[in-house]
Design brief:
Radius of gyration: 19 Å
Structural class: alpha/beta
Strand order of the largest sheet: 1-11-8-7-5-6
Shape: globular
CATH topology of the largest domain: Rossmann fold
Order of helices and strands: EHEHEHEHHHEHEHEEEEHEH
CATH class of the largest domain: Alpha Beta
Helix content: 40-55%
Number of domains: 2
Number of helices: 10
Strand content: 15-25%
CATH architecture of the largest domain: 3-Layer(aba) Sandwich
Bound molecules: guanine
Length: 291
């Protein structure tokens, strides 16, 4: 079998166009959705991600603020910046790029963000809401995976979904979103004993472990849907996922590439969450419709 490649770039463009319509409606009523991104330090990968987020905002006509703080920023200074953005009426979404330098407590900083502006969906209140199934802000990467599956016409209900990775940003929220769609969900880690036994049983396999080419063809059920969330550099400096593309594409039914798979969806869903935040905070769209 040769896997059908899921074109994340094309799906992201389509979804962005859908959200642009909602955003333009707000703009026509005098509310421009606004997002603030705070980056602390000089992590090169984080800088690229943040630049792409700001660029996507501009392309869709959203307002954005890009706050760059030095690596030795104090916790008090960072919390003061978050507080100022919480109070800024032009800003509907606030995102603090992770990881933060070691001396800063990411948990404390995230909890300082107004939950109504928490477009990453990382605040405990929104994580709790995700558990009960009603969060306004699903975390962007797993949210993007769900939209990709839906737009590709992949059935989730009743299927066995295996998520490899248990991070707060991807693995855990991914498992919950799949569960809400009535998948039977197994969460594994890179340390799971006999991991291949579990992955080979997956109808939908999501790889989010951060290890280059970790999932190989012999670990995949023929015809399975394989979603690669990894973004790694191999020893040649080339961008590769957590999935060994060559061997898995010969076995899987569907596969997302890296780059051009999940990546473009993550930023798209950040835009979606920001527009939804603006709809809710402005009061121009009833909560029930701001979904
Ligand atoms: N670092 C890696 N992924 C993310 C993300 O989705 N949001 C934030 N804030 N930081 C990240």
């Amino acid at each position: 079998m040769t896997a059908q490649i899921i074109d994340g770039k094309a799906i992201a463009q389509q979804v962005r166009a859908e959200w642009k319509i909602r955003s333009d409606k707000l703009i026509a009523q005098g509310v421009t959705p606004g997002m603030a991104v705070i980056i602390v330090g000089n992590d090169p990968a984080s800088k690229v991600y943040v630049a792409n987020k700001v660029k996507a905002c501009a392309e869709l006509g959203l307002y954005s603020i890009h706050v760059e703080m030095p690596a030795d920023t104090s916790e008090a200074a960072l919390l003061a910046e978050v507080d100022a953005l919480n109070k800024n009426p032009a800003i509907h979404g606030i995102l603090v790029q992770l990881p933060l330098p070691g001396h800063l407590d990411a948990h404390k900083v995230i909890e300082a963000i107004n939950p109504d502006k928490d477009v990453d969906g990382f605040h405990q209140m929104n994580v709790g809401a995700l558990v009960t199934g009603e969060t306004p802000f699903p975390s962007c990467t797993p949210y993007g995976v769900m939209v990709m599956l839906e737009k590709t016409g992949i059935q989730i209900e009743g299927k066995h979904a295996v998520v490899v990775g248990r991070s707060n940003i991807v693995g855990k929220p991914m498992a919950l979103l799949l569960l809400h769609k009535n998948a039977t969900v197994t969460i594994c880690t890179s340390k799971t004993v006999d991991l291949a036994k579990h992955t080979r049983d997956a109808d939908i396999l999501v790889a989010a472990v951060g290890k280059p080419n970790f999932i190989t063809g012999d670990m995949v059920k023929p015809g399975a849907v394989v979603i690669d969330v990894g973004i790694n550099r191999n020893s040649d400096g080339k961008l590769v996922g957590d999935v060994d593309f060559a061997s898995v594409s010969a076995v899987a039914g569907f596969l997302t590439p890296v780059p051009g798979g999940v990546g473009p969806m993550t930023i798209t869903m950040l835009i979606a969450n920001t527009v939804r935040a603006a709809e809710r905070l402005s009061g121009l769209v009833k909560h029930a419709d701001a979904e």
